[in-house]
Amino acid sequence: MKACGLTMSRSEYQPDFDHDFRRGKVGEDLVDSFLSVLDGSTLETKTDYRAWETGNLYIETQQEIRGEWVDSGLAISKSDFYCFAGPTGSGFVSIRTQDLVDLVLTTGRKVHMARSSPTSRDTRGFLIRVTDVVERVFRNDGADKR
User: 3-state class of 64 per DSSP?
Assistant: First the structure.
């Protein structure tokens, strides 16, 4: 079998229309819910220009305003999904906000981002690995028993 220029032997893939249909439905349902959420809702989109270099995404949770730390970013987000867009405009990875919160709480590393520009603020947040987001989106926790 040849797909997208890749060769796959028959032993690596065993077609089963009913099974493949059910598996594909999971993705279709997610995209449908994602698109329906967009109608009348907000979607939090972040573009991290250093994620490819560092392997991390910065998730803001607080900012300093007039010497006081206040919740911001993920801590106050009302969005249903977070999207992390690539700086080239080629695509993005989206994740349910609740899954992102869980990732931050279980794998995030606290950081303080000091800003030196008079037009920006110091922020606190967490670094999470891009691979952890991708794993959360694509993992299979045994929901698909074949």
Answer: strand
pLDDT at 19 over 60: no
Report pLDDT for 29. Answer: 76
Q: Which residue has the tokens 């594909």?
A: 24
Q: Which residues contact 133 (CB under 8 A, 6 or more apart)?
A: 57, 84, 93, 95, 100, 103
In sequence order, what are the residues at sequence separation of 6 or more whose Cβ sits closer than 8 angstroms to the Cβ of residue 77?
Answer: 44, 97
Look up the pTM and report it: 0.72
Q: Determine the 3-state secondary structure of 99 from DSSP.
A: helix
Exposed, middle or buried: residue 61 (CB in 10 Å: 0-12, 13-18, 19+)?
buried
